# Entry
Amino acid sequence: MKRIFLLSFFILFGIPESFSQKITFKDVEPIFAAKCVACHRPGDAAPFSLITYQDISKKLTTIKKVVASGYMPPWQADNHYRQFANDRSLTDSEKQRILSWIDDKASKGNYSDKSDATKQALLGVTAYNRKPDLTLKIDSSFIIEGDNKERFVVFKIPFESDQLRHIEAIELYSNNKKVVHHINYGFYDVADPLVDIRSGDWAINTTDDSESSTKLRQHTDFKRKMAYYTGWIPGTSVESYPKDFGWILPKRGVVLLTAHYSPSAVDESSIVGVNLFFRKDNVKREVKAISLGSGGIGERDINPPLFLLPNDVSRHTLQVQTREDQSVMFVWPHMHFLGKEFYAYAVTPQKDTIKLVHIPKWDFRWQELYKVKQLIKVPKGSVIHLDCTYDNTADNPFNPNNPPQTVVSYGDMNSKNEMMTLLMIYSAYQEGDENLVLDQ
Ligand code: HEC
# Structure
């Protein structure tokens, strides 16, 4: 009887770890691979790799500390509000498995070094796990002087081919990600053969973002014909779209890369660009990017305006109405150092609320292009709400001013100013889109 009871207990609740075999590296390796390696690999944002048994066993004490505290892996979105396909937070059982493994002497078990070698070879290329079809990058290194100033550099990279390219994924190319604060890319169509895409400044370098965009305008009359726009922030890996979706790279044009480099005390060198992955078939559903709030639609309607007084915690909202039925694929909330909390949701004409994203404790260092699990239908006439709180007190550990000072928004990316922006990547809605499941 007792045995039957115990058996049904296990069937109901699973075999507890203490009854099961000793945890070895084989049991935790897939967790590191899925939740850590995207950043902890050569050339990426984290300062060391966590790929092989060797890598990981060298860092056990700190891994235990940051996994137990929840500092790693960084994941800011509130999973109770909405869950995302690219969620890299640890489940309670994954967390427990890592901690038990470390406590239990981090045994290697019968894990073979061969598997590590295979893994490293596979990793070599890109986060999209295949070689890019086209890399557009600057020719020579850009040197960031070690003068502790932040920098905005606009790089112009021409491209030319005899055919349109259908894009299914895009990622940042960078040989030194830790110096990059963020990058935006705009792809422009320059069909006119009289416009020389190779001439003009290849780099415009200023310490002020608004200055760089004015200078840029003088050089780029073609700026009106934008084919696509997106960007990279620390933590983002690859932006990829499901079957049939994507955007089209024109035959001839330029990509303007606006790079914001963090201040550095030593000279650093940087090569930046984009890796593009082509579709084998054609794009049938075009994806578009739209930016709401600072630097985008509705900037002037932010209420009250982003005029953040010292020693004040303030809440600001924005409502923007949608003009077409949309299928939303990615949401990218953005604020700077004074950001405290970010909500975005849509209210349909029938007054239903569609939750988009909630960041309960904003942390400028860990931002993300959040990829939805299933396309979200936002019907025409819905109102998208941003509801954001800023903390301009000395209690905010990220406040760049001590004592706090008035901070405003110029709709630019200068991190001394503030922003309240939601970028959405979406397609025009088609029947059944809400059932389309996106993979990781
Ligand atoms: C989004 C990118 C990202 C992911 C995913 C990520 N890390 Fe990190 N990690 C970083 C960066 C960047 C740093 C260095 C900056 C810092 O410590 O804040 C770091 C630092 C660390 C440190 C050193 C902390 C210290 O106090 O010195 C450890 C240990 C660590 N990560 C472990 C992990 C583990 C384990 C995982 C997966 C469960 C993981 N990280 C997932 C980006 C990431």
